[in-house]
């Protein structure tokens, strides 16, 4: 069961990572197009709101895979100071803190999304509903919590996959 959970977490994180990459490509193309069009006196009016929305997706969806790849910034001075056993305890404790934090943030993002949907709030120019982006943040946070739980399972001696 642990291997199935681990595989599922890795697949979802990788899928989200690819979506995040596509959003980055969209940001680049839209920004370049907007700059070129400004030279001709016809800027893309909606560029800012689309870039902001895509940036939220980039951040939320890249986070789980980045954690799996250990691509985040780490302060390694503890590695040299603590024994392996104590370092393992620190890693497990900080990951549990992260799990709690991301579950709280994700839950709040879903509540915000529900409020935005009820209010019918949307972007100014394209009138894109705002709630899907709050939900996307919530999904990213909850998947990050699952990634951290996966890492706790690995750290506590469960079979690696």
State the end-to-end distance: 11 Å
Number of strands: 0
Helix content: over 70%
Kindly estimate the percentage of residues that lie in beta strands according to DSSP: under 5%
- Count of the separate structural domains: 1
Shape: elongated
Helix/strand/pairing category: mainly alpha
> Quick check: average pLDDT?
92
Rg: 19 Å
For the biggest sheet, the summary is:
none
Fold and architecture overview:
The chain is mainly alpha-helical and 161 residues long. It has one domain. It contains 5 helices and no strands. It has helices at residues 2-39, 47-68, 77-81, 84-119, 131-155. α1 packs antiparallel against α2 (47-68), α2 (47-68) runs parallel beside α5 (131-155) and α4 (84-119) packs antiparallel against α5. It is elongated, with a radius of gyration of 19 Å.
What brief labels describe this structure?
161 residues; mainly alpha; 5 helices
Task: Show the helix and strand layout.
Blueprint lengths: L1 H38 L7 H22 L8 H5 L2 H36 L11 H25 L6
Helix pairs in contact: 1-2, 1-5, 2-5, 4-5
Task: Give the gist of this structure.
The chain is mainly alpha-helical and 161 residues long. It contains five helices and no strands.
């Amino acid at each position: 069961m642990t291997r199935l959970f681990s595989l599922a977490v890795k697949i979802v994180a990788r899928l989200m990572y690819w979506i995040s990459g596509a959003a980055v490509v969209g940001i680049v193309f839209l920004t370049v197009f907007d700059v070129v069009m400004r030279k001709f006196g016809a800027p893309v009016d909606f560029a800012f709101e689309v870039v902001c929305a895509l940036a939220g997706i980039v951040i939320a969806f890249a986070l789980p895979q980045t954690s799996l790849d250990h691509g985040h910034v780490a302060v390694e001075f503890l590695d040299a100071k603590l024994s392996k056993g104590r370092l393992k305890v620190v890693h497990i404790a900080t990951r549990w803190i992260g799990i709690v934090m991301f579950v709280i943030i994700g839950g709040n993002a879903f509540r915000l999304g529900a409020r935005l949907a009820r209010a019918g709030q949307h972007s100014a120019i394209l009138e894109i509903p705002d709630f899907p982006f709050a939900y996307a943040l919530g999904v990213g946070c909850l998947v990050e919590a699952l990634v951290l739980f996966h890492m706790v399972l690995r750290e506590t001696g469960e079979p690696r996959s």
